[in-house]
């Protein structure tokens, strides 16, 4: 039994009784064996958490990811533009300050960035640029699923009852232009709060369901010339700005600043990654110029 092995050797991965075992011959390479081992480890972890409520498990995972990413702020990453500190573009924002220091009546526009934890601190994220658009924009960053942030979201919505909406194209969504006209006819469109969902479409669908159903959903028109109809966060907010009842010069100033910040981040991403980077980051980085050009070609018509 323990003599010199002959024939094919099999690697046997023993798992708890509840799971089946995996077999992989050497011909499938060490990579395959490592994949089986990874599956075994995941199964063992799940076995240890079997008694935990799935929602509690999800919350703990969100808190863990949030803590890991937050720990990078300051030493490695800028907490405002979400780029490495060596490539921070926040100092550029002062050069783009072509809007009045005193915001006009009805400003600033309140924006709640309701972000998926995987989107939080992602370099290619554009919602983070809205932090740099003050004094015309006031942002509140909340991570979906974090207990503190969920409580904060409820507080903000309660304080802005009747003056908040979710920018999301649900089946019952009202066109943003019609919604703002209704607000203007009743209490005025000033003081509005817009909730922007940050994540993939799949993530956004789940996040939208977590926002109170009594908060209106509004839809923005698709961006012509965009990448496969996609629209990043700052572009979506730009579409809202176009429909806002404010002076043309104020709109121009804000949209111009948003475009300049997009260009600065675009240049930084190309410098950081070059031809390298993760598939997700590279995919977003390649779309950036196309998305920005599509947005600005529409914004400059004002």
UniProtKB/TrEMBL annotation:
One BP annotation, GO: tRNA processing
Record key words, sorted: S-adenosyl-L-methionine, Signal, Transferase, tRNA processing
InterPro entries: DTW, DTWD2/TAPT
Signal sequence segment: 1-20
Record bears the keyword Transferase: yes
EC number: 2.5.1.25
Catalytic activity: a uridine in tRNA + S-adenosyl-L-methionine = a 3-[(3S)-3-amino-3-carboxypropyl]uridine in tRNA + S-methyl-5'-thioadenosine + H(+)
Gene Ontology molecular-function annotations: tRNA-uridine aminocarboxypropyltransferase activity
Protein name, entry field: tRNA-uridine aminocarboxypropyltransferase
Species: Guillardia theta (strain CCMP2712) (Cryptophyte)
